[in-house]
Structures are given as structure tokens and as C-alpha cells.
Amino acid sequence: MSAVRAAGAVGAEAGWAGRALAAVLERVAVTADEVGVRFPLYADPCTGAWKTTARGSWTGGCWAGLLWLRALSSGAPENRAAAARCTGRLAHWVEQDTATRGLVLWYGTALAAGPGGDGAAAALRDRAARACLAAYEPERCVVPWGGAFGGPRLLARADGVPGLVPLLTAAPGGGRDAARGHLTRHLALCLAEDPPRPAWQALPDGTWAPYDEPAPGWSRTAGWLLLGIADGLTHLPESGLWEAAGRLVALRTAAGAALVPPAQDGPPGAGPAPGPPDTSAAAIEAVAALKLAALARAAGRGAEGTRLADWGRRILHRLSAAHLSPSGALRDGCYDAARGLATSHELVWGDFFFAWGLALLTGLVAPDTM
């Protein structure tokens, strides 16, 4: 019998989604044995061998999140202990100068609040919330992208949004205002252009200028922003966020839009999109769609909720049918097309968001869990 189970699978999703989730979590078990105390980043598409990092980079929370999903599915105390140990190894990131602390320290701790709780993870999340609030710059209304990964520090980037909103709202002494400012500033900047521009640089005079990395057409722009909007609607209920969500959903569900987006899309009217597909971007969008679907239904927007749920389900079915290897690896993710880095690989964050989406479909986790 499988060491993991797709707990809570119901209805039509109990078949393909439950099987896909079980396969991904079996792959997590294999990966955990391979990487030990290191963090997986991306895996070779032929051999399945992982490129690892000592501290997890910006994806460390995704690996911890996968271990927590395995623990929730299996119910095994040893899996819960392994997830807790991994979460503890994320503590280094609390004081690092990067807005990706949302990705690392929210997604790496949120599932630890499950049955029985994990006091160390809760304490780490509290420290992270306070550190992120301390980094908030009210005159610019952002937690800056930061200098942890090099390049200009004073950037606003789409991937600096997810996870940071719930972290900030938990910080006493102005956390909610900071969360609102950070989210709305990023949405205003990114949606100022069509297609959305994922990165902007703060200028000395207080204005913002377009920044070229990542470039417009980047596959993960819409997904990261939609996750941030879902966080905002959960923790900072504001009806104005639905308009921003609608623009992004319309962009990604328009006629001709690929269900699995290209890693880098070309400008409008430029012909076929260049570059490989990015399944990790599709997985992020699926989670955002399912979270927004639940929020829409709760807000009395039933038809919108149905459309969002259908979009999320179609993405996950496509990933399961066309991109999931027999060993449970989500293939065809693209780390960085511009640099030619891991352009057709299994990516740890792709696995995480894919597993999370399947866990939402099967009932293993609720939409408001993280």
C-alpha cells in the first residue's frame, strides 16, 4: 500500500486528482531521502537528480510546504517531525533583506498550524511578520525587493507579493496598513502596463520606473499577483481587489491564451510566443484560481466562483495528464528562460503549487489554510 494517501478526496476529483497527488507525494518521499538536510531547487529532466542549496534560496518554503502536505496526507508522526525540522532550517531567512520572505516564511510555516500545531513554526512565523513590518518603507508603500539576491534593492516585483500580505497582517503595530500598502502599490505598478510589467524600480524623486528583469510577458507574473489578491481578499477584505483579479483572469483565460503559459511571452501582435512552457506558472495560477473561487462564492459571486473553479480544475487536469511523470515529477517547468537556466525541468515550487492545488481539489486542505 502507498505510504501516502490523498485524504479527503471526494466526487469526480477522487480519481485523477487523488492519484496525481499520491504520485507527487511519493516523489516527495524519494526527494527527501536524496537531499537530506539540503533543499531541492530543480531536477534534471532525464535523471531526476536534484540541484540543491544549503539554505533553500527563495524556494525553501515550498520544500517545507511539500513536506507538510506529505505529513497531512500520511498522518505519520515521522513525516510531521521531518516537516518541522525543515521549517526550522528556514530561520536564517527571517533577517534577510528580501521581499521573498513571504514565499519562504509564509508557505514554509502555514501548514504547520494543522491539527496539534507546531509551536516552533508559529514562533518563526511571528518573528518573520515583525521583521517584514520593520522592513516596510511607508513613503514608498512597499517592503522592497531587497539586496539578498543582488541587483537594485529598491524594486517592486510581482514575486515579492505572495505570502507577504498574510505575514504583514499578523504583525502588531501597523501590519495591516503595511500589507494593504504593499499589495495595492504592486498592483498599481504592475497593472499600469499591458501586458503587466512584473518589475519596477524606485527613483530618488519618489517615482517609479519600469525595470527590465523579469521582462513583461514573464510567465509567473499573473499567478504571483493573483495569489497576492487572494491573500488580500482573505486578510484585508476590499471589494476593489476583484477588479484587479478580473483583469488578470481575463488576460489568462482569453481566447488563444495557453493553459500552460510560455516561460516568456512576446509582445502583443508579435506572432507565436517564444520559449518553452512553464508548468510552474500554471500550477501557481491553479492554486490562485481555486482560492479565488472559494472567496467569490463566499462573497455571493457564484457565477464568477464557478468560472474560477473550472479554470483551476482544467489547469490541474492538464498538468496531470500531459506533464506528470510516472515517478510523480511535474515536468516542463522553466526556471529562467532569459539565462537558459533549467528551462525544461522539475522545479520544487512547481511541485509544491501543483500538490497544493490537488490538495484543494481533493479536500486535503481548505482554501483558507494558507
Give an account of the 3D structure.
This protein has 370 residues and is mainly alpha-helical. The protein is built from twelve helices and six strands. The protein has helices at residues 16-35, 60-74, 77-88, 101-105, 119-135, 164-169, 175-190, 221-235, 241-253, 279-298, 302-322, 348-362, and strands at residues 39-43, 50-53, 155-157, 199-202, 208-210, 346-347. The chain has a three-stranded antiparallel sheet. It is globular. The model is unreliable at 1-11 (pLDDT under 50).
Structure keywords:
3-stranded antiparallel beta sheet, mainly alpha, disordered N terminus
Proportion in β-strands: 5-15%
Helix content: 40-55%
Summed over residues and divided by their number, the pLDDT gives a mean of: 92
Strands side by side in the biggest sheet: 2-1-6
Fold blueprint:
Elements: H1 16-35, E1 39-43, E2 50-53, H2 60-74, H3 77-88, H4 101-105, H5 119-135, E3 155-157, H6 164-169, H7 175-190, E4 199-202, E5 208-210, H8 221-235, H9 241-253, H10 279-298, H11 302-322, E6 346-347, H12 348-362
Antiparallel strand pairs: 1-2, 1-6, 3-4, 4-5
Helix pairs in contact: 1-2, 1-12, 2-3, 2-12, 7-8, 8-9, 8-10, 10-11, 10-12, 11-12
Provide a brief overview of the structure:
This protein has helices spanning 16-35, 60-74, 77-88, 101-105, 119-135, 164-169, 175-190, 221-235, 241-253, 279-298, 302-322, 348-362, and strands at 39-43, 50-53, 155-157, 199-202, 208-210, 346-347. It is mainly alpha-helical and 370 residues long. Helix 7 packs antiparallel against helix 8.
